[in-house]
Amino acid sequence: MIAAQPNAAGAGEAPFREKLKGYGIDTLPEPEILWNFEKFLVSRSGEVVRRFSPDTPPEAPELVAAIETELAKA
Length: 74
Prior knowledge:
There is one protein chain. By secondary structure, the protein is of the alpha+beta class. It has one domain. About 25% of the residues lie in helices and about 10% in strands. The chain has a two-stranded antiparallel sheet with strand order 1-2. The two termini are about 20 Å apart.
């Protein structure tokens, strides 16, 4: 999954990785999964089409739009 989408789109003001470092939490280097709740959008054919950072809420407009776009594909 990571190889298919090495960069996660983030919704927060500051990159989530920097926020974690501010709390003294070491993270793995990119493109590794950063934290729980990182989201991968998978197409009907099983391909990873998007990746969203853990701070992207489920109702984020960009996430909802990406899901709706994939659902609209036949």
